[in-house]
Amino acid sequence: MIVFFYTMIVFVCALFISAVSFSAFVVTRQKMLALATAAFFFYFFDVSLVFRTAYVHPHSSADASLYSITSPVESVLLGAGVFGCLWAMQCRFLERSMLPAKIAVALFILGSAFAYVGINTPRDREFVFFTMRSLTMLAMVAFDAWVFLRTSDPMERKRQLTHMPLVLYMFVGALGTIIWNLYFLYLRPALEVTGPPPFMPERSFVENALVLGIGFWFLRVAVRRLQLFYESAPAGPTPAREKFLENEVHLFATRFSLSERESQILTEIMRGKSYTAIASQLYISPSTVKVHVHNILQKTSHKDRHSLVRDFWHGV
Hints:
The protein contains 15 helices and no strands. It is mainly α.
């Protein structure tokens, strides 16, 4: 009964993260949030596969189904959806092409298919089949570390370091999932613990914690986007929100060598103010504001104000 309610909580968390990410996507139109929406929507259905045995094979014996893999095709496709979206999010954040994400998904599908078809021993088959998920996650960590070590721009390295806690969490979580699988499939029987294993790789609490932990990280990002794009907050800008914007503008300005005045104007642009409002606040003419904006666009290689705002928040 406890495991049932635990699984329902995982369901709710996955759907909640997906829903908030979708709300932020509707407001901001950032593809990163669309990918987060899809990733955790896929994960909701992926977790639901643990219930399928009760409905599809309700009378299967425990011994016959101990090392069986429930819904292998659906498991591979949903896993590819989850980890493919996570890989795509990473590539967008690191400003790399989607080729590594496509290769990772292809290897995940091929590796999972080989494990299911090519390995005859049921226990080994289940271990390799579900460990492909952890290996895909570890590949993400390795790719992130490789990009970071090859980056020479100090500001870009600083931007990447803001997500290093998430990368370390992914590393620990992926290793923890592999250890979970090793214990319940190999170590526990070797210790001659009586009775069937209570939990198998299909119901891994460590994997749940890993994926939902990533989800709550992006939930925090989605909430920030909603707060920054909220147009009628009765209390006005909060100190925390203003501090966040100030820090991000400073990083952006340093990266593109913007002047102090250009940084001030950039800050007001990110607050959604018009040229006239910016000119009034800074005691300069609207034409001077336009000149500064033109210089900002040239330095940052943007064609218009809309693309500047979009890429600024994409890089946060």
